[in-house]
Amino acid sequence: MHFSYAIEKGLNVFMEKPVTADGPTSKRMLKLAEDASARKLKVGVGLMSRHSRALQELANRVHDGAIGDIILQRGYRMHAPGGYFLSLPKPAGISDLLYQVQRFHSYIWASGGNFSDSYIHILDHLAWMKNAWPVRAQAVGGRHYRQGPEGITYVDQNFDVHSVEYTYADGTKFYFDGRCMAGYQQIYAQLPARHQRNGDRFQERRLRDALQPVQEPIAVACRHGLGI
């Protein structure tokens, strides 16, 4: 709704992810993106790595064959609960709708949950390096810790473990493991493997101002009429 309005008014847009929570909405957003491009509007999304000059250079080298053909990818995101990953029962004095909108990370309909918000970065990084999107996914997941320290059961819809096997059109596999639990080792890594020898790990280094790489190219593009 907001994106449609911005396009109608001829406004440049920066939108934070997760942008959509389901397939039909994603298709509508892609169509709106085409409309925005046809009107020469600038649109950016909060997948900040795409705007990192260092990762852009890395992607260019990988695409140019610097490490050979990628034949396997592995991604890991192990972290503690953040944002509104966990939600206790709704308190009195607030509607169900408002409570869920406020705590959008907890509800699949509102955000796609923790997977769409946190793990999308790993999928984005490795698909970017592969220069393709997976065509199939097979996954399992579950929830181990459902109660808070006070013994109250959480009502959010998130899993705290995920494992996904992605397959690209050429048969290449990408294995992802995610865990969202307090008190465990934190890992944020993506590893592509190439022919002949195991390959080259790259890991995003968070900048002090993580949104700066996104804001700068969009601002420059808007100011000078350039592409993003």
Please give the alpha-carbon distance between the first and last residues: 23 Å
Structural class of the secondary elements? alpha/beta
| CATH fold naming of the largest domain | Dihydrodipicolinate Reductase, domain 2
Total tally of structural domains: 2
Question: Over the alpha carbons, how many angstroms does the gyration radius reach?
Answer: 19 Å
Runs in which pLDDT lies below 50 for 5 or more consecutive residues are: 201-211
- In order across it, which strands form the biggest sheet? 4-5-6-3-7
Order of helices and strands: HEHEHEHHHEEEEH
User: Helical proportion?
Assistant: 25-40%
Mean pLDDT: 87
Give the name of the CATH superfamily of the largest domain.
Dihydrodipicolinate Reductase, domain 2
Can you tell me the CATH class of the largest domain? Answer: Alpha Beta
Main β sheet profile: 5 strands, mixed
Query: Which range does the strand content fall in?
Result: 15-25%
The counted number of beta strands is 7
Q: What sort of overall outline do the alpha carbons produce when their principal axes are compared?
A: globular
Tally of separate helices: 7
Which architecture of the largest domain would the CATH scheme give at its second level? 2-Layer Sandwich
